[in-house]
Amino acid sequence: MMYNSREISPLLRCEMNKVIVVMPAFNAGKTLAKTYQDIPKDLVSEVVLGDDCSRDNTVELALSLGIKVLKTPKNLGYGGNQKMLYNEALKAGADVIVMIHPDWQYDATKIPELIAPILQGKKDVMLGSRILGGRAGTLAGGMPIYKYISNRFLTWAENLILKLNLSEYHTGFRAFRRRVLETIPIELNSDDFVFDSEILAETAAFGFRAGEIPIPCRYFSEASEIDLWRSIVYGLQTLWGCLKLVLHRSNIKKFAQFTAR
Ligand SMILES: Nc1nc2c(ncn2[C@@H]2O[C@H](COP(=O)(O)OP(=O)(O)O)[C@@H](O)[C@H]2O)c(=O)[nH]1
Ligand SMILES: [Mg+2]
Q1: Is residue 260 part of a domain?
Q2: pTM for the full model?
Q3: I need a labelling partner for 184 at 20 to 30 A (CA). Which of 16, 90, 201, 206 fits?
Q4: Ligand 1 atom index nearest CA of 226
Q5: Is beta strand 173-177 parallel, antiparallel or unpaired with respect to 68-71?
Q6: Backbone angles phi and psi of 201, in degrees to 5
Q7: What is the number of the ligand 1 atom nearest to the C-alpha of 103?
Q8: How many domains are there within the chain?
Q9: What is the CATH number of the domain that holds 35?
Q10: How far apart are CA 20 and CA 95, in angstroms?
Q11: What is the domain range of residue 38?
């Protein structure tokens, strides 16, 4: 089912939901304005950018656009940046927290569809799926073939273990119900890219309901800078995260990550 801002507005108003969008940024100067422009402001109470010591004009640009900026004290990494942002969104009283990369890779105009199942009480975590979005947003759109193959393989392994039944676990466009981020001990997660996989392993461990919508996706040089080596590390760490859940569930070894905050 597709939604637009106008259909969703009454839902937001009657439930008094506060939606906060967070953007973990690192050198996003070339793409931030376009990403911000696409965010449906009528649905969103606040947009917060986390700057992880960018070396470009990300901070100045964000401030000039009227975006709230939080700066990491030192370069923490993508996961460390998200921890700062989620804690801030909880402190600000968000009911729904949307995370979108500020690299204009994902289509922020899809936020209403993404959050609808959370507002309706049907899901706790929602992902924008490039795979469901079709080939134009993956291989035909310019996703490197090694990223496509590893995405498919990791997703297969994650579905087998986490059983969230998703078409991909590696998107940079996500939404969380407040309770999810209050429950999951995100502080124990990695400060690196694998944070994104860990939070979904925890979603499964805590029994939260995950869903997805198809989204278009754009590929261009600023939208994708993670190289082969960092992708390999990410893939191996993702598999280790799944294995940890297997060990935890079978009582072979317990991990605090899978125990409530
Ligand atoms: N903190 C931090 N964040 C980064 C770094 N590189 C990328 N990011 C963030 O991670 C997101 C994903 O990286 P990106 O290169 O777009 O990867 P891809 O789109 O998955 O191929 C970006 O939108 C940035 O927000 C980095 O070195 N440090
Ligand atoms: Mg990207």
Answers
A1: no
A2: 0.94
A3: 16
A4: 15
A5: unpaired
A6: -65, -40
A7: 23
A8: 1
A9: 3.90.550.10
A10: 8
A11: 5-255
